[in-house]
Each structure stands twice: as structure tokens, then as C-alpha cells.
Amino acid sequence: MVKVNNITLKNYRNFKSLKANFENVNIIYGNNGTGKTNILESISLMGKGRGFRNANIINLIYKNENNFLVESEIEQNLNKYNLKIYSEYFENKYKKILNLDNENTKDTNKFIETSFSFLYFLPEMERLFLSSPTYRRNFLDKLIFSKNKNYNKLINSYKRNIIERSKILNLPTYDLNWIKTIENAIIKTGLEIYKLRNKQISLLNDELEHFNKYNNYPFSAKFEIEDNFYNNTIDEQKYAKSLEGTRNIDSQIGGAKIGPHKSDLYAIVNEQTNASQLSTGQQKTLILMTLFAQCKYLINQNIKPILLFDEICSHLDDINRKILLDLTKQFDAQFFFTGTEKSLFSFMSTNVNFYNISKL
Ligand SMILES: Nc1ncnc2c1ncn2[C@@H]1O[C@H](COP(=O)(O)OP(=O)(O)OP(=O)(O)O)[C@@H](O)[C@H]1O
Ligand SMILES: [Mg+2]
């Protein structure tokens, strides 16, 4: 998979202009507000969408400038490519444009989309186990997406059909065949989402168990999906019957009472404690362990992910910090970590590219 060799930012967020070269392990450090998260975000733009903060394109442009440019050399199987990402104002809207070796075609876009696999940690993800089920489902879905690039199409199609069904149910009268067609589409995509999520959880649990055996992890953890409707006896017929049975209530309340959009994710630590009851630092450690477990899985699948971990050190004690950062040695992946102090990473000195952003 792809490695990012360097990056040049022009009129991007707080950077009028910036150039940086990257290695496999990169640590970007500097004071608050110097632009560390912005640099990680500019790399995340190489994936599908508007970066890891899902920002409006206009907010990516340096204040009062017209457009931004993120240019980089990327490398895949010893082939080097020039990748340009920039904003374009068209029909009253800002759009993100990707150019690979100065070409912008369906093929180049597909190549870029499928070549990058990101795993990222943002400071607000510390609250994963205390946030809403939606936030946790998104976390799980992003893990699936890191391997399966068609997964977001499946999710979008499912969501579209749920909305469509709601609209029909709210009509004074509707054609029964019409609702059945929509519900069949919901069932097909819904069962596929359940299947992929269960598969993801099971391989994550396997990797976590493996890690625990061979590394000095602070605790063991097992993820589970909580869903009031689904179990492994649910097939198309049962699903159809249940959806039919909830039409009435769904037409009154809106949405749909059952389905994978109602699932939640939780983790049990050391076979007894719900992760939401751990301390802040322990919860963060668990989330990072999970991301590293997914990293390991991707590497086993011949995917070389790019890990963007913002503020990786805060709330971690020396022991957990060392355990987690030491893992970078084991993985053939590209890492970008940020922190306010270089000293937090001092024990990692070999083969690490330190980048002091405050001195620019
Ligand atoms: N479009 C923009 N134009 C100019 N400046 C911007 C723009 N968007 C964001 N900024 C500024 O970029 C600065 C750096 O933001 P960033 O979040 O990357 O800092 P950071 O180094 O990650 O800080 P912290 O250590 O607090 O996390 C902020 O002060 C913000 O106001
Ligand atoms: Mg930041």
C-alpha cells in the first residue's frame, strides 16, 4: 500500500506555506495552536471525503485566500506518484479535487480511494465508551471501512432506504408492493451490515487476545455488539415479518425501530468490567489497543495502513505510553503521532522522524 513521502501545504488552514518530509514513524510536536492536528488532517484528505474532522472545504482554506493545495509524493510498490489535492469553487460550492500525476479521471480517483487505508485517533475519541451509540457505531464502521472500501456504499444505501420507507409510511395511503420492495432492500443490506460488523468484532477480539498473549498489555478486552433485535437465527423471512410488524409504530415515531442502525458496541475488560467504567487513561489505552489490533489485522491482509494519532500521549502514564508506542516497531505501517513535547517520545529515538512545528 501507500506511503506518504512528503507534503507541501499552500494556504491550508493556518499554513500559508509548509513543506515536510516523512519517514515510517513521524512525530510532529509543538505548542498548542501551531497546526499539528491540521497537518494530520491534510494527510487524512488523501482518503475519501473531507478529512478526519469532516470539515467544510471552505474552512480548510487559509483565511481570506481563494483555494488550498495539499501536494505530496506518494509511493506504492516502489512507484512514485505526485498527488495534488485542492479546493475548487464551482456552482456556488467548494469541492475537493484529487489529481494523480496531473490526471483527474475515474480511474485515478478510484486508485487513490482504494490505495489509502487510514486508522486515526482524535482526542475526542477518548470518550468513545461514554458517548452515544451512534458514535460507537461509526467507530466500528470506520474499522470495517479501513479494509472494505465498498462498505460505506452499503451503509449509505441502507440509510437511504430507511428514509425512503419512513416517507412512504407517512403517506395517507401507499402501495403495499412499494413498501415491500423497499423493506426487501433494507433486509438485504441490513443483514449484510450485521454480518460484516460481527465479523469485524470477532477478528478484533482474536487480534486483541493474540496481543495479550505476546505483549505486555495492561488488560484483556473483548468487544460485543448489543442489539435488541438481531441474533444469528434472524433470516430474511423473520426480518421481513418484524419490519412489517413495526410499520405502525415506525410511521408514528419515524425511522425504524429495528435494524443495524440501532446496534451498540461495548467492551468488557478483564472479563468483568464494562469499558465505560474504566478511568480516562485506561479507556484511551483500550481504544489505542483496538486501533493497533486493527492495524495488525490490516497488515496480515497485505494492507499497509497509515495511522494518524493526534495527542497520543495525553492521559497515558509512562507504562502505557511505552507499551503502545513500542508497538510501532512491530508494524510495517506509516505512523504520524502528535504531542506538545518531544520528551514524551524520547525513548523511541531510533528510526523516528521528529518534526518540530513550533520553529517554523
Ligand atoms: N482556515 C484557517 N485559516 C487560518 N487559520 C486557521 C484555519 N483553520 C484553523 N486555523 C488555525 O489553525 C491553528 C492550529 O490549529 P491546530 O488544531 O492544528 O493546532 P494544534 O497544533 O493541533 O494545537 P493543540 O496542541 O491545541 O491540539 C488554530 O489556531 C486555528 O485557529
Ligand atoms: Mg491538535
Please describe what this structure looks like.
By secondary structure, this protein is α/β, with parallel strands linked by helices. The chain folds into 2 domains: 1-117 and 304-360, Rossmann fold; 128-303, RecF/RecN/SMC, N-terminal domain (Glutathione S-transferase Yfyf (Class Pi), Chain A, domain 2, Up-down Bundle), CATH 1.20.1050. It is 40% helix and 23% strand. The chain has helices at 36-44, 57-60, 106-115, 133-147, 151-169, 176-214, 236-253, 280-300, 318-326, and strands at residues 2-12, 15-21, 25-29, 69-76, 79-90, 93-100, 118-121, 221-226, 264-269, 273-274, 306-309, 334-339, 353-356. The protein has a 5-stranded antiparallel beta sheet. A 5-stranded parallel beta sheet has the order 7-11-12-3-13, with helices on both faces. The chain has a 3-stranded antiparallel beta sheet with strand order 8-9-10. A hairpin with a 2-residue loop joins strand 4 and strand 5. Bound molecules: adenosine-5'-triphosphate (ATP) and magnesium ion. Magnesium ion binds at residues 36-37, 310.
Brief digest:
This protein is an alpha/beta fold and 360 residues long. It contains 9 helices and 13 strands.
What best-fitting shape do the alpha-carbon axes yield? globular
Q: Ligands in the structure? A: adenosine-5'-triphosphate, magnesium ion
Level-2 CATH architecture of the largest domain = Up-down Bundle
Q: What about the largest sheet?
A: 5 strands, antiparallel
Annotate the secondary structure layout.
Blueprint lengths: L1 E11 L2 E7 L3 E5 L6 H9 L12 H4 L8 E8 L2 E12 L2 E8 L5 H10 L2 E4 L11 H15 L3 H19 L6 H39 L6 E6 L9 H18 L10 E6 L3 E2 L5 H21 L5 E4 L8 H9 L7 E6 L13 E4 L4
Parallel strand pairs: 3-12, 3-13, 7-11, 11-12
Antiparallel strand pairs: 1-2, 1-4, 4-5, 5-6, 8-9, 9-10
Bound molecules: adenosine-5'-triphosphate and magnesium ion.
